[in-house]
Amino acid sequence: MNADEERLLRHLDHAVPRISADDVAARARVEGTRIRLRWAAGFVLAAALAGTAYAVPGSPLRGWFSTLAERFREEAVPNTDSALVPVAPMAGVAIVPGPALVIEFTDLQQQGQARVTLTDGDQVQVRAPSGAATFSSDPERLVIDNRGSTAEFEIEFPRGASWIEIRVAGARVLLKERNRVTLTRGAAEPAAWSVPLTPPR
Amino acid sequence: MDRSGLGDAVAEPVARQLFHDQFAALFNADFPRVFRYLDRLSGEPDLAADLAQEAFVRLYRRGALPDQPQAWLISVAMNLFRNVKTSRSRRRRLLTPARAEESHSDPPPSPAEAEEAAEIRRRVRAALDRMPERERHLLLLRAEGYSYRDLASALALNEASVGVLLARARTAFRATYGDSPDER
Predict the structure, then answer these.
(1) How would you class B13 by CB atoms within 10 Å of its CB: exposed for 0-12, middle for 13-18, buried for 19 or more?
(2) Residue ranges of the alpha helices (H) in chain B?
(3) Contact B20 A18 (CB under 8 A)
(4) Within an 8 Å CB–CB cutoff, is residue A34 touching chain B?
(5) Which of A98, A169, B84, B97 is the most buried (most CB within 10 A)?
(6) pLDDT per residue over B10-52, tens digit each?
């Protein structure tokens, strides 16, 4: 930058607010506690909903859990004839979105994608193998810290949600605006969208 | 790498104090320039203050400094600003900052000087708003002294191309401002 450019930009400046690092640290501690409680409440609610759905006669979740249980049983007995993929325990978050929600993956991954489907419920749900990411949320933003992860994520949007955006490392990759879903990257399948979490080619 | 959040990531009192000291040093050095970058970008000092604070709050909640903390802060600040623009939702005010007092070491400007300053401000704002987004970020961040490495990391650029893109940004700024300052 030369002096003239600096001089011009300085015309835009306002006084820097007088805030201390201690003030920000104290606020961060309060925010962290509040968000962890909110996440825990959301997860408990999701677990309760899953339990209710499981209890409904004819629920497909029964078959899903049976399959998982079968896979774990098979893993306990070594099988050299076939390659079994261990199913990792899942973790996630469920939130009721506000009028506009941004789902933000903090980082690009070396591999992995997010698969998005629509539901008839009123919650946004995000699931991933336990330990793949940490979640923090409020009604306007759901941050998925996926640094170092290679996981596959499952995301469910309420069909009636008016505006939900997915960003990966700051770039929009999917936007649901009322009934319309627009992909910047990824592929559309029947009733689902696959969003890559890897760098664009 | 610990992913469980603030309370678990900094369990030991000594480690916690070390992180706090590192954070405080980084905050004191970088908060003014993150604020100034956001202020120049948005033209809204209250919004810039909110977003700059939010970026540092998020950094503190990590419990550990990232490998490139300056680049990390820029990325977060940029994303926060972008989301505000996109959603137009008003953020909660995190703190109520006490505004720094205006410097009174110089005599107040005359009406003519004030009018000239206002005109320059308007033209600079218009010039920035007309620039391509990436060039605008490059120009404002470089003005705060961020390294080419930090710029490349924050803007997902090849470090080798930052110099060329920055030169392009400066040219675009001068062209849209309609002035021709002497090159150094």
Answers:
(1) exposed
(2) 6-9, 13-42, 45-62, 69-87, 111-130, 133-143, 148-155, 159-177
(3) no
(4) no
(5) B97
(6) 457 788 889 999 999 999 999 999 999 999 999 999 999 999 9
CA distance A92 to chain B (A): 14
Confidence (pTM): 0.54
Nearest in space to B150 (alpha carbons), one of B6, B22, B37, B23: B37
In this predicted structure, what is the pLDDT of residue A67?
A: 67
Chain A hits for B56, CB-CB cut-off 8 Å, are 21, 24, 28
| Chain B residue closest in CA terms to A23 | B95
Q: Does the beta-carbon distance from A12 to B184 stay under 8 Å? A: no
Instruction: State the maximum Cα–Cα separation within chain A, in Å, rounded to a whole number.
Output: 74
Three-class SS state of B89: coil
Alpha-carbon distance of A88 to A90, in angstroms, equals: 6
Interatomic CA distance for residues B49 and B109, integer angstroms: 26
CB contact under 8 A, A18 and B182: no
**Inter-CA distances, B66 with B1, B95, B151, Å:** 11, 24, 15
Q: What is d(CA B136, CA A80) in angstroms, rounded to the nearest whole number?
A: 59
Of A1, A23, A99, which is closest to B95 when you measure between CB atoms? A23
Pair of tokens at residue B33: 């320039």
pLDDT of residue A68: 65
ipTM of the complex: 0.77
CB contact under 8 A, A21 and B23: yes
pLDDT tens column, B94-105: 444 444 434 444
Name the nearest CA neighbour of B19 among A92, A28, A188, A46: A28
Measured CA to CA, the distance from residue A9 to residue A26 in angstroms comes to: 33
> Which candidate from B143, B174, B179 shows the least CB-CB separation from A9?
B143
CA angle B76, B82, B87 (to 5 degrees): 125
| Interchain contact, B99 vs A19, CB within 8 Å | no
DSSP-H helix ranges across chain A? 3-10, 21-55, 60-76
